[in-house]
């Protein structure tokens, strides 16, 4: 039984960060005409009603999407992301927040396809209903790490793999590093985006060591911290590992994070970092 339900967290700062960058990765793949494949290993519900009592419980979206929604100085790079949210809502309201499946699906071309994987039975059922009849998308009730074996390499030989774990089990960082090593062995040229929460420094250094020990090259690490250390117990920040980022992504990410970090930071705290955890090799 999975305890984590993303509806409690939908639209929080971590969603804004990961989804805005995810859009750039898809746009990067679209620069070539040949078809590509997207695998979302932890797909969630697909769409979230922010008026639902679970979303309202801690109202995390108020410190996330609500802080940037309605801003008039949004850099161009965010346009596909904001369009995806606008596409779910009437006029300029913010009731529905799209998850990664809906955001990515809007950006796919008729030649591209997407595989969505979710382990929570109920959420997977809702996801299936949301994408029912969509010939470019298939939905699977399955473990995301198994999916990395089952669906890679894709026949297209081009693709984006988004791994967005809920980190509700012990040793998830280890599982992630191992899953990534297995997946990369099967499909070394894929673009991988792996989200993680920032925990205590010792745990983070251990995770980085596990990732570099895989021997995978071209890993860009992006981290956003939105709270001063003394602020409280909540998640202070999060990161994204991007393996084989498309040409131009690093510069886009720099500019986007320079805008996002002050927009999402609490009481002027926080920081950002973009770093090559592993180079060309
Ligand atoms: C952070 S949420 C995903 C949000 C989604 N990727 C998005 O951006 O909209 C993590 C999801 O992973 C699911 N999950 C947890 N463990 C899983 C596993 N081993 N395999 C697949 N899904 C899992 C949870 O039920 C939850 O819906």
Keywords, separated by commas or semicolons:
alpha/beta, single chain, two-stranded antiparallel ribbon, 10 strands, 281 residues, binds S-adenosylmethionine, 8-stranded mixed beta sheet
Which SSEs are present, and which pair or pack?
Layout: H1 13-29, E1 37-40, E2 47-49, H2 53-58, H3 65-68, H4 79-86, E3 96-98, H5 100-107, E4 113-118, H6 121-130, E5 137-141, H7 144-150, E6 159-163, H8 172-186, E7 191-197, H9 201-213, E8 219-225, E9 237-243, H10 249-264, E10 271-278
Parallel strand pairs: 1-4, 1-6, 4-5, 6-7
Antiparallel strand pairs: 2-3, 7-9, 8-9, 8-10
Structure commentary:
The protein has 281 residues and is α/β, with parallel strands linked by helices. The chain has 10 helices and 10 strands. The chain has helices spanning 13-29, 53-58, 65-68, 79-86, 100-107, 121-130, 144-150, 172-186, 201-213, 249-264, and strands spanning 37-40, 47-49, 96-98, 113-118, 137-141, 159-163, 191-197, 219-225, 237-243, 271-278. The chain has an 8-stranded mixed beta sheet with strand order 5-4-1-6-7-9-8-10, sandwiched between helices. Strands 2-3 form a two-stranded antiparallel sheet. Helix 1 (13-29) packs parallel to helix 5 (100-107), helix 1 runs antiparallel to helix 10 and helix 4 crosses helix 5 (100-107). The longest helix is centred in the first third of the chain and has 17 residues, at 13-29. The N and C termini lie far apart (41 Å). S-adenosylmethionine binds at residues 2, 4, 6, 40-44, 99-100, 117-120, 123, 143-144, 164, 166.
